[in-house]
Amino acid sequence: GQAHIWEQRLGILDECLHTLNQTQRKFVYLEPIFGRGALPKEQGRFRGVDKEFREIMSEISSNPRLVVFSQRKDLSNILKAMLDQLGRCQKALNELLE
Fold first, then answer.
1. The pTM is what?
2. What is the CATH number of the domain that holds 79?
3. Residue 75 structural domain
4. CA distance 23 to 94
């Protein structure tokens, strides 16, 4: 019934918030580096994540109710894809620094 629906919603919310937190940490670390034009080959990848990240954060800012946040069907997949792309950017940076 209702309890099951809320359990699912809260589970999705927990997963999204965890992934958003990871994404935010990577973004804050990488943004100053890529913002200055480092690693030109990865700029397109980072710019795509940057655009999506800012849109999501703007959406959250305009409607901070977490229940609404958790009801966006594709959010979990988008956040996971962004985290993956940031991981690729970080890997390229690490390879450059080695």
1. 0.86
2. 1.20.140.100
3. 2-97
4. 17
